TrEMBL record:
SUPFAM superfamilies: FAD-linked reductases, C-terminal domain, FAD/NAD(P)-binding domain. Its main location: cytoplasm. It comes from the Bacteria. Keywords: Cytoplasm, FAD, Flavoprotein, Heme biosynthesis, Oxidoreductase. Its EC number is 1.3.3.15. It is an enzyme of class 1 (oxidoreductase). It comes from Hymenobacter segetis. The keyword Nucleus does not apply. This is Coproporphyrinogen III oxidase. It holds the Pfam family Amino_oxidase. The lineage of its organism: Bacteria, Pseudomonadati, Bacteroidota, Cytophagia, Cytophagales.
Length: 445
């Protein structure tokens, strides 16, 4: 057995790491000279340590074990205690979002009507599972429209760059329909199963999230950066051959029994097209909306708001320019110069695509104007920067269904997909699935 892994993001690197630990032969090819894909930490000359991908990570059991395995436990940086507070814009001002079902009833964020609908959820009739039901339809059916507008919508825009009216509940939060079916109520199911009990620890690494992928790459024996896979072919014995373009020019790498696609769906599609045109067509239409992160630093004295939390999200009904901001300096104070605060503002996603396509200077100006309005900021920013993804987070909407079916079918051809469009968009999701897949492949030896 020999496996070619195409793509050196967190999924491909983790898969390679666990294959290596299991004694499985592999080669990992990454087109970029730098490993990590969207996990990128940016240290600026002005003294800011920024994340252009995920700003923080939930410390799952698999992530914690991987960090220990890599010798990075002492590099874990806990989020500040204030990060437990999450804010949402409502009626033009930021209010703390309740963090648990009981708090939903006692906090003043939701109206009495919305609270009554929450209580009624325990007795709502159970609907048959509908594979095409959207996140918004599910929550509206179980909890009412206000919960969708002021909780579900901003969460999906801020975390998934998505629109709950399009994302499928069965693909995004499939455990919730399962709880409805098993317990007759989502809230009852959360309480009895313990799945709604508290948040996981929120962390980063002292030198940034990129520390994980840099360390993984450095420990891999068969990692080949700056090497693009330009084509895939198949020999008469069923093994795969890759055409490569790397530092040495064009070359061929034959004899792989398995391929692991750790690529975005749009990048995997053209490679698959000659051999598997139907699968390629399904992957090619997966939606990756544009997104930009705009970083804005101010003197602390210029900002009226307390910034006592993780950040603030914007419901679409509030008519804002951006999806919201993470208060980077509140979560990790040592990442900005003393006496300053830093906002990481997200522009784009499926609900804000027009803003995502504006020029950089227009985005920076619009973000500054919106921050000034809602946070009581006076004066110009001390510094601004931007990082743009023309294609950001894959959307688990109707178009992902055929892509997942295609991935299922490809497994019979010894091609496995481990990218985030296949397994879930969070870093812990990718690590968990890559580790599981490595174990399954090792069992085939």
């Amino acid at each position: 057995m020999k496996i070619a892994i195409i793509g050196g993001g967190i999924s491909g690197l983790t898969l390679a790491w666990y294959l290596q630990k299991n004694g499985v032969a592999y080669d990992l090819f990454e087109a970029d000279a730098r490993p990590g894909g969207n996990l990128r930490s940016w240290a600026t000359p002005e003294g800011y340590l920024l994340e252009t991908g995920p700003n923080s990570l939930q410390l799952s059991a698999e992530l914690e074990e991987l960090l220990a395995d890599l010798g990075l436990t002492d590099q874990i940086q806990e989020a500040a205690a204030v990060s437990q507070h999450r804010y949402v814009l409502r009626d033009g001002r930021y209010q703390i979002m309740p963090g648990s079902p009981p708090a939903l009833l006692t906090n003043g964020f939701f109206s009495l009507k919305a609270k009554w609908q929450l209580l009624k959820e325990f007795r709502q009739p159970v609907a048959p599972i509908d594979p095409q039901e959207t996140v918004a339809h599910f929550f509206r059916r179980r909890f009412g429209p206000e919960i969708v507008d002021y909780a579900v919508n901003p969460f999906m825009a801020g975390i998934y760059a998505g629109d709950p009216e399009k994302l499928l509940i069965n693909k995004t939060f499939k455990q919730l329909p399962a709880l409805e079916q098993q317990y007759g109520s989502v809230l009852r199911g959360l309480m009895k199963s313990g799945k709604g009990a508290g948040r996981r620890r929120i962390i980063n690494l002292k030198k940034g999230v990129q520390t994980i992928t840099d360390t993984l790459a450095a420990k891999l024996s068969n990692y080949q950066p700056a090497t693009t896979v330009t084509a895939i072919s198949r020999a008469t014995d069923g093994t795969y051959q890759l055409e490569l373009k790397g530092p040495q020019g064009l070359e061929a790498a034959p004899g792989y029994t398995h391929l692991a696609l750790a690529l975005p769906a749009y990048a995997a599609a053209p490679l698959l097209e000659p051999l598997f045109p139907q699968a390629a067509a399904a992957l090619a239409v997966v939606n990756y909306p544009p997104m930009a992160a705009v970083f804005s630093a101010y003197d602390r004295t210029a900002v009226v708001h307390s910034l006592n939390g993780f950040g603030a999200l914007h419901p679409k009904v509030e008519g804002t320019y951006a999806a919201g901001s993470v208060w980077t300096s509140s979560i990790y104070p040592n990442r900005v110069p003393a006496g300053q605060v830093l906002f990481t503002t997200f522009v784009g996603g499926t609900q804000y695509e027009d803003a995502a396509r504006q020029p950089e200077e227009a985005q920076k100006a619009a973000v500054h104007a919106e921050l000034s309005k809602f946070y009581g900021i006076t004066g110009a920013p001390r510094w601004q920067g931007r990082y743009a993804w023309p294609r950001s987070i894959p959307q688990f909407d109707a178009r992902i269904v055929e892509a997942h079916r295609a991935a299922d079918a490809l497994e019979a051809e010894h091609i496995v997909a481990v990218a985030n469009w296949r397994v879930g968009v969070s870093v812990p999701d990718c690590i968990r699935q890559a580790r599981m897949r490595a174990g399954l492949l090792a069992a085939e030896k």
